[in-house]
Design a protein that fits this description.
single chain, alpha+beta, Alpha-Beta Plaits, Glycinamide Ribonucleotide Synthetase, Chain A, domain 4, 8 helices, 24 strands, binds adenosine-5'-triphosphate
Length: about 425
Amino acid sequence: MFNNIYVGIDDTDSQTGMCTTYITSVILDKLKSCGYNIKGYPRLIRLNPFAKFKTRGNGAVSFKINIKSENDAINIKKIVLNYIEDLSQLQDERTNPGVVFFQGKISAELERYAMKTIRDIVPLKETLALAHKIGADVYKFKNGRGIIGALAAIGCPLPDKTYELLAYRLPENYGKKRMIDYDSVRLMNEKMYPQTFDNLDNGYIAIEPHTPCPILYGIRGESPDMVLEAHNLIKTMEKIERYRVYETNQHTDMHIVKIDKIAHMKKYGCYCVRGIVDDNPHTIEGGHVIFTLKDASGKLECAAYEPTKKFRETTRKLIKGDEIIVYGGIGNKGTLNMEKFCIQNLSTLYREENPICDCGRRMKSAGKNKGFKCLKCGQKLREGTKIRLEVKRDLKKGCYEVPPSARRHLSKPLVRFT
Ligand code: ATP
């Protein structure tokens, strides 16, 4: 008999409120108070950023509990399902909770399924078939779409991982301005960065969400101790109801598939690919910066969208001929939404100038295809051409990334590449 039970939960919240991690946290406190032993950290697993029905960050949660008897399993299921029923936003038509209980070993097949849920789109019937095959117990509320993420959260391997400490607000504060002391976040960042990262963004607090959810702040870092230490440095002018540390696949680039041909990229996939910049980046309506990347197999439109702010300035400095590796996901129009890029080779930039006359003055154009003339001494150069001068590039080889406010949960910050 197995002495552990895995619990996976997803799709309990809506755009107007609640959060699957919060419901999980309430459940975990209840299970602890009933004497159950939670093994390790609960897991917050981010799934495909392009999944159609996501509310926000496409996160699902799982945890593992030690059980001594089949009665324990029955009791745990009852507690979990009661809380899901009570706290989920069931009135929202887009909220379709799913809960999965599993008392077995995490197989390679289950891990592959989880990776598919992170990198691809999975139909509900595929989840049901796998759950049936491995003997997982599946509970669907309404259409139960949440079981797709719930099973993935149980099966997800974590060869690289980070931690997030989530602090939750008192229910009476939901929807109100978050009362976090800015200076304490700044000081925390000075002490903890990069062991905790994405604390600040261009002088703003980056640890607070901007939705009416129960989360007051989330601190992301490399270890449970680090996120806890950072949490102890934060001062707030409102009470924290509870907090919890999650183990996660956030900021690991688990969504990114490394490929060597642009032609192999598909919509709603996230990739890392090498290519040559095929035109100088230009700004389109809305402030988005666009350019084309090419390799021998094809071409790809790449974008630094408006929310990526200063990243767009760096992108604008690229020129035709630069060789780069880009990371990002392909949206429904087939454009790659860049998360970061690494410059491998910089092309030479030239500027063209009119020739200098023998008298030392720069010549003027004499008209289209008529060469040049000197306004000082009158000399003409009928066959003259412009002179090409090399210009120092205002860009260095290396990697550049979007700011924390525009970073995808799964995207690995450069500070984590060592
Ligand atoms: P939050 O981040 O606030 O928890 P969310 O963005 O995670 O919200 P959910 O409410 O969990 O959004 O809704 C996402 C839905 O999409 C879930 O039902 C989940 O099972 C499903 N889903 C997730 N990934 C995939 C995928 N790769 N293919 C198909 N369905 C998916």
